[in-house]
Amino acid sequence: MANVSRLRTVFILRTVVFLLAVGATIKLLTGSSKLVSQNIESRGFWEEKKSGQFFGQSGALQGWIWDSELSQLVQVKKEEETKLEQAPVVEMSQKIALPPDPKAVIEKDYGPLGMKLVHLDLKGAPPRIAYLKKLIMYVARLGADGLLIEYEDMFPFTGDLEILRNANAYTIAEIEEIQILAAKQQLKIIPLVQTFGHLEFVLKHKQYWPLRESERYPNSINPHLSGSLNLVHKLLQQILLKHPAAECVHIGCDEVYQLSESAESKAWLARNGSTLGGMFLDHVRTVAQQLRDLRPGVRALIWDDMLRTIDEATLRDSGVAELVEPVVWAYSPNLNVKVNVMHIKKYSTCGIQAVWFASAFKVCKGAEGPSVIAPVVRHRVDNHLHWLEVSQEISTLSIRLRGIVLTGWQRYNHFAVLCELIPVGLPSLAICLQVLNHGGLKTEALNTATELLGFSKITDNPSIVWAGEGSFPGCEIHNEVLYINGSLRDSVTAILDSDYVRAWFSKYNRKHKFANPMFMEYFEPKARQVLRDWEEHMESLQSKMLELFFPDAVEEWFEVHVNPNLDRLRHLLQDYDEIIALKGQPKA
Length: 588
Prior knowledge:
Layout: H1 2-42, H2 68-81, H3 104-107, E1 115-121, H4 129-142, E2 146-150, H5 172-184, E3 188-192, H6 200-203, H7 226-241, E4 248-250, H8 263-272, H9 276-294, E5 299-303, H10 312-317, E6 324-329, H11 337-349, E7 354-360, H12 377-393, E8 400-407, H13 422-438, H14 443-453, E9 457-460, E10 465-467, H15 475-496, H16 499-504, H17 507-512, H18 517-548, H19 551-561, H20 563-580
Parallel strand pairs: 1-2, 1-8, 2-3, 4-5, 5-6, 6-7, 7-8
Antiparallel strand pairs: 9-10
Helix pairs in contact: 4-5, 7-9, 11-12, 12-13, 13-14, 13-15, 15-18, 15-20, 18-20
């Protein structure tokens, strides 16, 4: 009897173990497909009804009801999205582990300003890998602590994301080379992955149109679609897999235009009675949690502009404060210190533990303009001097300053023209870093920057203009571009505004092919010589640029910044050749 009882017990135990194993397997197989839908259904059940002022007055959509017509619209949208949901989301429990000592980058004492990160914006004129390596070593020499790398379409995405890759995208091997070199230079890398707004490089592709918040515009994703969350998860996962040492990830989330335009957003607001700020925070919270599920302990950085107009109660109750670190950005040389201190105090009150600053070392949003080719160095220095003031003002707050990002935007966005090329911005970067390192525009800062750049001296201290050729990476291009910036337009305008052109070869004369050859011959030799000199100059510059940048970027730069001026001379001389042959005939 004892043996029978013992056998029966063993049999029961084995049966229980078998059933548990089967249950676990079923949960594993179905968990992935359920994850996103559960995430969507659960969002909005936390408190969202606090009054916020975010892109309009609170309650602007009160009275807007969920009806059958809207239900039909959402159903159509879901059908359009089906193709994007075919690839399953990878299990969130699949962690991408950190290397040893994951907190070293944050816990190291970087001084009162924290880490100094140099922003590499690769969505415009990304450098060839050989030049990028030189830049990384040079940035370390200048005194930076790390790099914020915004790959956008230059990352070697794989699988169904491969369509996002630029034709010149870096290879996986090159991404690894960048990280190895940065580690040797003691530079930490923080990748930047857009996860809400500024997803033009994704949403421009027709297969991703169903994920747009606004059908008309490729700016932002619809945060309520499982396909959108699937996309964000894949972007984060592929970036993290190729950045095993990353302890922070910047998830973007700035300038989320058109939010609330989709049927799903209107339905969300109607169901939850919430403000747009609450809906924005809901998506941020989901993405930040996705990131932590992929890599426990990782810190999420977020641009702060969308947070500024959200009221304290909504921000505090959202749960976002424990998940993200805002990057407070302001790029103007006349930066308002009080306003930025006010934002930071609000974040502190809402329970946010740490913030970052973001300055700009070259032309940027809200500063000189979207299409200039050289920075006003003094303006960039003034921007950093004001950030030093902000750091002093918040030094007594409980909130921690993690560091400052020196942004170097290459475009305003994916569809905008190129701003300055990287070599043109390096002198500005050098002096701005020294201003931060020395706590102001001191003699030591000026002398150190001049020495690092290889210039002979500063010829105009208030405006910060250097003399000499320089010895930094890309200095030849820097010098050529400054010469073009100061001379090209003026030399062409001098011809077109001369008396002989304005009085005897005006647009009216050219239109009617009515001109006196004697007066035409006065301006023609000079015009031809100026055009010839510039074209020879540009041919040389083009060769130098092609050594550092890919052909499409070089072509764009010349089409945007050079040819509009030279074409004015070319057209003038084309008309000259046609009309001079008429030998002074009556009007055509």
